[in-house]
Write a structure and sequence with these properties.
The chain is built from 5 helices and 6 strands, in the order H-E-H-E-E-E-E-E-H-H-H. It is of the alpha+beta class.
């Protein structure tokens, strides 16, 4: 069994010197994404786009292509939705069995629904609503995420909202 895993990894990463694609595509069961999509639709005015987006696993310190630019994955980042490519990046470690980690996927699926439903003055403007929905989902599970609301609202301001 271990040998099969090592051979599989060797096929994915033919040369150990960095040829392995990063981030790696990952599979989240359809039942998980469908349940999250149904929750979004029942707790918001959004209709979730059909089909699941591509989902990738990345690690803190990696550089990913996000919205057409290279982005260094910050240690505080848990997930990101790339509208241009309709894909979600989850930052490891990630598990569907961990409600806080699963709520990161929910948050990005909320962004997917938000950005497909209407135009926003800037991507950051969608954050407070996504965090409110994420907080409600966690509250249903008895979890207080302890979000820093002042920071969320500060970072949700569009560049045009800032005084020169």
């Amino acid at each position: 069994m271990i040998r099969a895993i090592v051979i599989g990894l060797a096929l994915l990463c033919p040369a150990a010197g960095g040829a392995c694609p990063a981030p790696l595509p990952m599979s989240v069961p359809d039942a998980v994404t469908e349940a999250l999509a149904a929750w979004i639709e029942s707790h918001s005015d959004y209709t979730v786009p059909q089909g699941a987006p591509a989902i990738f696993m990345c690690q803190s310190g990696e550089v990913i292509t996000y919205e057409g630019h290279d982005l260094l994955v910050d240690p505080d980042l848990r997930a990101a939705y790339d509208l241009m490519e309709d894909r979600i990046f989850l930052v490891g470690p990630w598990s569907e069995d961990d409600p806080m980690r699963l709520s990161s996927l929910l948050h990005e699926l909320i962004h997917r629904a938000q950005f497909h439903a209407r135009d926003w003055p800037c991507p950051a403007a969608a954050e407070p609503e996504a965090y409110r929905l994420q907080e409600a989902w966690l509250a249903e599970r008895g979890i207080d995420p302890g979000f820093a609301w002042a920071e969320i609202y500060l970072h949700a301001r569009c560049p045009s909202d800032r005084h020169p």
